[in-house]
What does this fold into?
Amino acid sequence: QNPNCSSRYNYQTYTIEGIDYTRTAFSKFRARNRKTGKEEEMTYIAYYKQKGLDIKYPELVLIKTKGPNGS
It folds into this structure.
């Protein structure tokens, strides 16, 4: 059984699926910009900054999770 963790920003519980050693907070992905409403490529740092959050250790690898609804 995979361990669970909870996030500090939305207090949801997630199931840890693994660790992605190829990505960090500097990695880019496609998401909707909250200010413009347009989909764009952005870093995880920029994504969380839009939500008013700073990533404390951006050089660390990312944890792969399954969301609170199992997705």
About this structure: The chain has a mean pLDDT of 87.
